[in-house]
Amino acid sequence: MGKPSTKRALPDNEAKAIDAVVRVSPQKLNLLAELIRGKKVESALADLTFSPKRAAIIVKKVLQSAIANAENNHGLDVDNLVVAQAFVGKRMVMKRFQARARGRSGRIEKPFSQVTIIVRELDEHAAKKGRKDFQPGRGKKAQGGAKGAAKPAAKEAHTGAGA
Q1: Cα separation of 149 and 12, whole Å?
Q2: DSSP letter (8 states) at residue 153
Q3: Which pTM value belongs to this model?
Q4: pLDDT tens across 35-93, in order?
Q5: From CA 73, how far away is CA 70, in angstroms rounded?
Q6: Model confidence pLDDT, tens digit, residues 131-144
Q7: Cβ-contact 126, 132 below 8 angstroms
Q8: How far is residue 12's CA from residue 55's CA, in Å, rounded to a whole number?
Q9: 81-99 and 14-22 beta bridge pairing
Q10: 37-72 burial by CB neighbour count: b if 16+ within 10 A, else e?
Q11: Looking at the domain 14-99+106-132, which fold is it?
């Protein structure tokens, strides 16, 4: 007998793709991850296709892999997919040295990164209306939490008392 199968980490309406060793700095890749986060996959692919950045090719391949995983492995509809999460992690750093003046050496760091993209299928109702059933990266301020509501009221009270 084989070992028991592990429980799936993602919900049934999500698929993931990872590129584990990318020879581009995480800072450069994160610019592209921010560009596609929360967009429909067609729009994200178009943005990456026409991006002038060299790293856009890598991120596009990972996104295409996530779309293929969603379609082939999980049976999700490609037309209703949205980039739910796109994040970049640090990997190893190669250290090199370059000769400098007066017998010294300069350190050169060549960083590696990891790109992870998770796509989510929206339900038919949400996809037809064009709205998302989630808001990636939205905190309490965007949702109208206590902090956001208290500041304008305090400002109005302050201006009213001074007049």
Answers
A1: 36
A2: H
A3: 0.76
A4: 999 999 999 999 999 999 999 999 999 999 999 999 999 999 999 999 999 999 999 99
A5: 6
A6: 555 555 544 444 45
A7: yes
A8: 30
A9: unpaired
A10: bbbbbeebbebbeebeeebbebbbebbebbbebbee
A11: Ribosomal Protein L22; Chain A (3.90.470)
Task: Render the burial of 123-136: b for 16+ CB within 10 Å, e for the rest.
Answer: eeeebeeeebeeee
Distance (Å, whole) CA 57 – CA 24: 11
Between CA 64 and CA 116 the distance in angstroms is 12
Which tokens go with 27?
């800072």
Report how many helices (DSSP H) and strands (DSSP E) the chain contains, helices first.
5, 3
3-state secondary structure of 104: coil
Q: Where are the domains of the chain?
A: 14-99+106-132, 134-163
